[in-house]
Amino acid sequence: MIGRLNHVAIAVPDLEAGVRLYRDVLGADVSDRQDLPAHGVGVVFVALPNSKIELVTPLDEASPIADFLRRNPAGGLHHVCYEVDDIRAARDQLVLRGIRILGDGEPKLGAHGLPVLFLHPKDCGGTLIEIEEVRPKIV
Ligand code: CO
């Protein structure tokens, strides 16, 4: 069901420091910052030859990333995102297999403007998993 690894998201308390690490120390291409108020986050994308890293920081205290940083003040691995062909079909199969979907279960547009869902980490080995339909039929 799951396809390619689309990205790994890392929560950072200081986005500029994260950019300096990935651009100046690790030597990767890093995008300009994008703020996504609907998600409560600011993001940059680190382009790798075979995938992407998303550095994500909260825009305010109500952001879900702010919660994560209260538990992990230095930041850290937040989620991994796998591509699926049909997000609603994948969701329905996963629910039948006992996986809970976060939120209302309906796909939302994620940071790349594509439909995404998040799976409950307690059902997924302690990892927050995002699934993304990379070639949406109907958004
Ligand atoms: Co993501």
Walk me through this protein's architecture:
- This protein is α+β, with helices and mostly antiparallel strands.
- The protein has one domain (5-133): 2,3-Dihydroxybiphenyl 1,2-Dioxygenase, domain 1 (Roll).
- Helices cover 21% and strands 34% of the residues.
- The protein has three helices and nine strands; from the N terminus they run E-H-E-E-E-E-H-E-H-E-E-E.
- The chain has helices spanning 15-25, 64-71, 87-96, and strands spanning 5-11, 29-30, 34-36, 41-47, 52-58, 76-84, 108-109, 115-119, 129-133.
- Strands 1, 2, 3, 4, 5, 6, 7, 8 and 9 form a nine-stranded mixed β-sheet that branches.
- A hairpin with a 4-residue loop joins strand 3 and strand 4 (41-47).
- The longest helix is centred in the first third of the chain and has 11 residues, at 15-25.
- The protein starts with a strand and ends in a 6-residue tail after the last strand.
- The structure holds cobalt (II) ion.
- Cobalt (II) ion is lined by residues 7, 9, 54, 79, 81, 110-111, 130.
